[in-house]
Amino acid sequence: MVAPSLLARLKAEFWLRSQVQADDTVLCFGNLPPLFPNKGKVTVFLQNRYMFGSHNFSGFSLGARLRLALERCWFRWCMRSSYQIVVQSQTMQQELRQALGFESRVLPFLPAMQTQASDNSIDQTFDFVYVSSAEPHKNHRALIQAWVQLAAKGIRPSLALTVDHNSAFTIVAEIEQHKQLHQLAIHNFGTLPPGQVQALYKNSKALIFPSKLESYGLPLLEARQLGLPILASELDYVRDVVQPEQTFDPNSPTSIARAVMRHLAIKTEAVVPVDAAIFLAEIQKRGAA
């Protein structure tokens, strides 16, 4: 195990260069190829969509932006034609080819769901669950705004979240603020171990997944394995892996709210157009008042 520090990583890279032989296979699970060339057969498992392409990093901290800038340079400059890149979706493969000209192999895999009894410490039932960390692209703000819009209509479905209380304190504070202000039925469990995540899925009626960017979207497959209906962003990465029951524009809280209402079989009232005479009569009625 390599400690999460620059010095530890450099030591590991020097060790790798000196120890790997021609018959060895080097599997890099951390998105980055070896820093130094080695004699082995190298495969890079690419899961982070931020390693290439154009993205808006304004929502990240300065430290995160610097780290991503360094890693993007590392990924691009240290990748060699002899290395095999493995991705988990066709969309990821196509976007990598378009952005950098790198070829890759699509080889998705899904960790087996636990066969033993899952943790039963979660005894609530939720209308919706969103299992996710709180990076900007996970789009929690739009999801919460959708819940605010629903509350304004008197609709308050319950929602379970897994936003870490320590590393994502800003989002956690916003969630709590809107929860109190609008009486939202939201419960944030924070980071959960796998057994409790499975229990949370089993205690939920549907998965809602408003993320704007994913290399694979593992919760989509986990939810599908457990038979949960899925409401998700209408984006390519979603349909790479599942066919959701409802979709929405992830940039629009209104679209998310409407998808929730469709799933709950709540009708939305469309604005009925009127003719010119009625239009003028309504205008004059207000003027008279």
Can you walk through the features of this model?
The protein is an alpha/beta fold and 289 residues long. The chain folds into two domains: 6-106, no CATH class; 128-263, Glycogen Phosphorylase B (Rossmann fold). It contains ten helices and ten strands. Strands 1-2-3-4 form a four-stranded parallel β-sheet. A three-stranded parallel β-sheet has the order 5-6-7, covered by helices on one side. The protein has a three-stranded parallel β-sheet with strand order 8-9-10, sandwiched between helices. The mean pLDDT is 90.
How are the SSEs ordered, and which strands pair?
Layout: H1 6-19, E1 25-28, E2 41-45, H2 62-78, E3 84-87, H3 90-100, E4 105-106, E5 128-130, H4 140-152, E6 159-161, H5 169-182, E7 186-188, H6 194-202, E8 207-209, H7 218-225, E9 230-233, H8 236-239, E10 246-248, H9 253-263, H10 276-288
Parallel strand pairs: 1-2, 2-3, 3-4, 5-6, 6-7, 8-9, 9-10
